[in-house]
Structure formats: structure tokens, C-alpha cells
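== Item description ==
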Amino acid sequence: MENLYNQYRGNRPFIFGDKDQMNNMDFIKAIKTDAPIVFDSLQQYKKEIWNEALTFLRH
């Protein structure tokens, strides 16, 4: 367990489980977050900021 926590703090991938869990595929499930999709508005905002920066640097 100590080695597992060290890998977690070091941002290294790891798998935690046992053989019984891996034989039962119902154990693996996705987590639904219901997070809103904001990529399109973020992309537009990035373009606006970039255009303002380029306009500032041009003058």
C-alpha cells in the first residue's frame, strides 16, 4: 500500500484491485459527472484574448 500511495503522489499510473474483481466485468463502471459542455465558448474566448493581444502588440 505504501508503494501504491507513493506512485499516486508521483502522478504515476497504477491499478488497484484483486483477481476476483477483475473476473467480474460488472465491477468496472463509468462515473457520470453531468459536467456541462463549455469547449465551444472557451475556444471563442481564447480567440478573443489572442486577437486583443495581437492588436495590442501591433500598435
Notes: The mean pLDDT is 79. Residues 1-29 form one domain. Helices lie at 2-9, 19-23, 39-58. Residues 39-58 form the longest helix (20 residues).
